[in-house]
Write a structure and sequence with these properties.
By secondary structure, this protein is mainly alpha-helical. It has one domain (about 40-435): Up-down Bundle (Na+/H+ antiporter like fold). Helices cover about 70% and strands about 0% of the residues. It is found in: Cell membrane. Its main location: membrane. GO terms for molecular function: antiporter activity.
Length: about 425
């Protein structure tokens, strides 16, 4: 980093340590981790103390953000279980098959009509960047125990799947930006590497790693500490191989997570020494905790290097786009996707509101902002303001709206046991996602 690197690291460590000391109390409040770290980023960025700057520290900032997203993709894929979809598949299925394409189209059309100076391809890129959702931004709303299981698992599964489904479109649209490294590969080369090579590398790395681990732990050859470290090596290795061969580290890590979990479940049962004290398999614990830490730090650098400068160039058009993106662009596709599902209006409204933008959008926004393209600043500003406003509004509203919706559901379910929201949602969420 720059000469301010030592001060920047010290500031980041102070924020991380301070949040850790009060994390339990804040978890039950309307103050979310993304809110705290984004605000801290504003303080230490160019708009505040000037300890972090994208032009000066682009390398470390992008490396941190990309590593965070790759690990989150790996863990999200590895913890998606088929049992969650046996009865409640219709909610994430509709949101992904119908809602996601409509959200991308709506966001792109709105950017093209409202943000001056953007080409059609650049507007479409903004729509793609702001399409994926992030449950961590509104964790209290998505994982609240009194929320019906089908809604909890539906929103969580949507976040775990849509963040990677947009990556091929993002890679192709990035080619349309003149002067970027991706533009020299061409759309065909990008698609070949993203849709073929990267999934293949992820499949091999995750599948082989899961198979070898299942046999090793069944034979008692692996210690608990290194069993938890192996997924980190697999996620990192799959992503690094894809990046080195011109593919997508994100796609490779996502596929590796699926393959690793599938191979682990298909292998021989673990010995008693390889499970946690309560008998639960905690193989993913270390990579999950590291992913959560890197995600929090990514919100900090987002506040510093993207949101702070964006606020300095804020216009009424950008502000209007951010508000409409978080409301109409999310709500209308959700209503259309859930039409005929027999879900009650409060559930549809709750699902529509908590389509929170977060880590995937900010990482893709940072990648675009770092490119030397004519429309990069305009796109980065729109993405930053939208994500920043969403972090604030979804974080503040998560606790009160979850409580209000939970009370409505309990009353409605007591009067009508056959309520559509009462279908089984599958297995309980992992403990690390409820914290």
């Amino acid at each position: 980093m720059s000469g301010n690197g030592g001060w920047a690291v010290a500031a980041v460590a102070a924020v991380t340590g301070g949040y850790a000391l009060v994390s339990r109390r804040l978890a039950a409040s309307a103050v979310s981790a993304p809110m705290v770290f984004t605000a801290a980023g504003l303080l230490i960025g160019p708009a505040g103390l000037g300890l972090l700057d994208l032009e000066r520290d682009a390398g470390p900032v992008l490396t941190l953000a990309e590593a965070a997203l790759a690990l989150v993709l790996f863990t999200d894929a590895a913890t998606v279980r088929s049992e969650e979809f046996r009865s409640g598949w219709f909610l994430p299925g509709r949101l992904l098959v119908v809602g996601l394409p409509l959200t991308i189209a709506g966001g792109g059309l709105l950017a093209w009509g409202l943000l001056p100076g953007l080409t059609g391809w650049e507007a479409a890129l903004v729509g793609v960047i702001l399409a994926p959702t992030d449950a961590s931004v509104s964790k209290a709303a998505v994982f609240a125990p009194r929320i019906p299981a089908v809604v909890r698992h539906g929103l969580n599964a949507e976040c775990g799947l849509n963040e990677c489904l947009v990556l091929p479109a993002f890679a192709v649209l990035l080619v349309a930006l003149p002067g970027t490294p991706a533009s020299h590969q061409g759309a065909a080369g990008i698609l070949r590497h993203v849709l073929l090579l990267s999934p293949l590398l992820g499949l091999v790395a995750g599948g082989l790693g899961g198979m070898l681990l299942s046999r090793s732990r069944a034979a008692g050859r692996v210690t608990d500490e290194w069993r938890r470290i192996l997924p980190l090596a697999l996620a990192t290795g799959a992503g690094a191989l894809a990046a080195a061969t011109g593919g997508s580290a994100f796609v490779a890590a996502w596929v590796a997570g699926f393959a690793f979990a599938a191979a682990l479940r298909a292998g021989p049962p673990p010995g008693p020494a390889t499970d946690g004290e309560d008998g639960a398999d905690d193989t993913l614990e270390s990579v999950e905790h590291l992913a959560a830490l890197l995600a929090a730090l990514s919100f900090l650098v987002f506040g510093a290097v993207l949101l702070g400068p964006a606020l300095a160039h804020l216009s009424w058009r950008v502000a209007c786009y951010a508000v409409l993106s978080l409301t109409v662009v999310r709500a209308l596709p959700t209503v259309l996707a859930l039409a005929g599902s027999r879900l009650r209006p409060p559930t549809v409204a709750y699902t529509a509101w908590f389509g929170s933008r977060g880590l995937p959008s900010l990482v893709l926004g940072l990648i675009v902002a770092a490119e030397a393209a004519p429309g990069a600043r305009s796109m980065g500003t729109a993405v930053a303001v939208t994500v920043g406003l969403g972090v604030l509004l979804h974080g503040v509203s998560s606790v009160p709206l979850a409580d209000r919706y939970g009370r409505w559901y309990e009353a409605a379910a007591s009067r009508r046991p056959s309520l559509r929201e009462s279908v089984s949602g599958g297995l309980p969420l992992p403990e690390w996602k409820r914290r």
